[in-house]
């Protein structure tokens, strides 16, 4: 008797488009997710069960175009190190819905509070993070948690995410030589995790304290 494999009939990540040739709206929508990913790559260097995507298509239906968050985090998935990496994130291959999605709001709204929010809720994305870089009178950081099929707002700073094991928040700092407010990961005590640049500076200071010139290594 032949066994029917429904997944074999669906397109793979290699067959699906990995770009629609539409650029991101501004540089922050690229840099902010990139910083969050860079911090995770250090603190979770030995973990092999996570993936952070930035401006990447998330396919949930072979007959629909992908959702493209500015950033998203998935846990319980394989961490690839081959040269091709993931061309896109395909739910019927990964079998894990992202636990967190991030949208950085540009000067014009792109469905952050309508289409995208509804789609993320339907998919079962646990945390939906919205960051408004230029907002003044309302909170710039909004973290929504899915509770009984609807998102509830948490506007603390930082917001602890127990299912992730990290908090997310905003504060002023320097990344790639740019001093401004950035999004960072935090530990449970509310202490900000260091960026790659900051870790390198700490290491250099420790070496100098030991009488070692870090530039000679």
Feature tags:
three-stranded antiparallel beta sheet; tt1808, chain A; 27% strand; single chain; 20% helix; six-stranded mixed beta sheet
Query: Which fold name corresponds to the CATH topology?
Result: tt1808, chain A
Strand-residue proportion: 25-35%
The domain tally reads 1
What is the chain-wise order of helices and strands? HEEEEHEHEEEEEEH
Terminus-to-terminus distance: 65 Å
Shape: globular
* Class inferred from helices and paired strands: alpha+beta
What does this structure look like?
The chain has 217 residues and is of the alpha+beta class. The chain has one domain (17-216): tt1808, chain A, CATH 3.90.1570. It is built from 4 helices and 11 strands, in the order αββββαβαββββββα. The strands form 3 sheets. Strands 1-3-5-6-7-8 form a 6-stranded mixed sheet, sandwiched between helices. It is globular. It comes from Brasilonema octagenarum UFV-OR1. InterPro entries: Nuclease_put_TT1808, Restrct_endonuc-II-like, Uma2. Residues 32-156 form the Putative restriction endonuclease domain.
Please provide a brief summary of the model.
This protein is α+β, with helices and mostly antiparallel strands. The chain contains 4 helices and 11 strands, in the order αββββαβαββββββα. It has helices at 28-43, 91-94, 115-123, 196-209, and strands at residues 50-54, 58-59, 71-75, 89-90, 100-104, 127-131, 141-147, 150-154, 159-161, 166-175, 178-186.
